[in-house]
Design brief:
Length: 180
């Protein structure tokens, strides 16, 4: 009865882990997360590692029934370590997701700051152009008029570049918001 209780406890722990892992079980992972001594087969998803735990548990049941105590001890220890490792990895997946969200929010905040800064540049350039145009209408000297016309042309070029930058920033913000 004691072996049956231990096995059912193990099975319950494995089932709980599988349930917690289910939402991200088939999600691809970037790199192997575990040592080959712990999980003998590499997997590109956490679900693959969960399957190895289940396979080991099936093997454990067979060893218990065959009364192979050395293998039972080894497999029980192996499964326990695998469950602990996969539980830790599941916790870090949640943290990574939160870090990614924070990073995206920071990028979004940076884009809004950049947008505000460029809108201020645009406003100031409009003001400078209006000032030069007003001065141009009031200026009598031909040389000064030419200087003002050159300044206005340069300011209009800067304003065009500023508007292009604003458009680009707005598109980046839209793209960022579509990700949410």
């Amino acid at each position: 009865m004691k072996k049956a209780d231990s096995l059912s406890l193990f099975e319950k722990q494995i089932d709980n882990l599988a349930e917690a892992l289910a939402p991200i079980a088939n999600k691809k992972i970037a790199a192997p997360c575990f040592d080959t001594a712990l999980f003998h087969r590499r997997s590109d998803s956490l679900g693959g590692y969960m399957q190895q735990i289940r396979d080991n548990f099936t093997q454990l049941i067979a060893c218990v029934e065959a009364q192979r105590s050395q293998q039972v001890k080894f497999l029980a220890t192996q499964i326990l370590q695998q469950v602990e490792a996969l539980t830790r990895e599941l916790s870090t997946q949640t943290l990574r997701k939160q870090e990614n969200l924070l990073s995206q929010r920071k990028k979004s905040t940076d884009l809004y700051q950049k947008l505000a800064q460029h809108q201020d540049y645009e406003r100031r350039l409009h003001s400078m152009i209006q000032d030069r145009e007003l001065e141009l209408t009031q200026t009598q000297g031909f040389t000064r008029q030419q200087e003002l016309q050159k300044e206005i042309a340069a300011l209009e070029n800067r304003l065009a570049r500023c508007k292009n930058a604003l458009y680009s920033i707005e598109k980046s913000i839209e793209k960022q918001e579509d990700k949410y």
